[in-house]
Amino acid sequence: MLLIVCPYCGKRPELEFTYGGQAHLVRPAKPAELDDQTWTDFLYMRTNTKGIYAERWRHARGCGRFFNAVRDTTTDHFLATYESGQPPPALPGLTPPAPPPRSST
Ligand SMILES: [Zn+2]
After folding, report:
1. What separation in Å is there between the alpha carbon of 58 and the centre of ligand 1?
2. pTM of the model
């Protein structure tokens, strides 16, 4: 069984966790000022990286807290986990987080 390290609880079986999507998304400060396409892209478009990827996870059947993880999507190997709000670790192959979308006006 795959074990995932919750940064708050330690190693736990993967069955205790739920996937939460791409990590480090930053909500635009003034979404009403965005054009429809930019807002739609923020809401629905995610990178779909093959390889090293920063993701949100939740220890749903444990402490219930969200955290971030860096996982290789080709091997399902977790390279790092860290608390939400922390920057991702500097790992080879990991793309840094994108800045939030900005108004085009
Ligand atoms: Zn936990």
Report:
1. 8
2. 0.84
Say which residues have a Cβ less than 8 Å from residue 37's Cβ, sequence separation at least 6. Answer: none
Domain ranges of the chain: 3-83
CATH number for 3-83 (one of 3.20.20.150, 3.30.2270.10, 2.40.440.10, 2.60.40.1180): it is 3.30.2270.10
How far, in Å, is the centroid of ligand 1 from the Cα of 73? 22
Q: In this predicted model, what pLDDT tens digit does every residue of 43-93 receive, in sequence order?
A: 999 988 899 999 999 999 999 999 999 999 999 999 999 999 998 888 888
Angle ∠(20,21,23) on CA atoms, nearest 5: 100
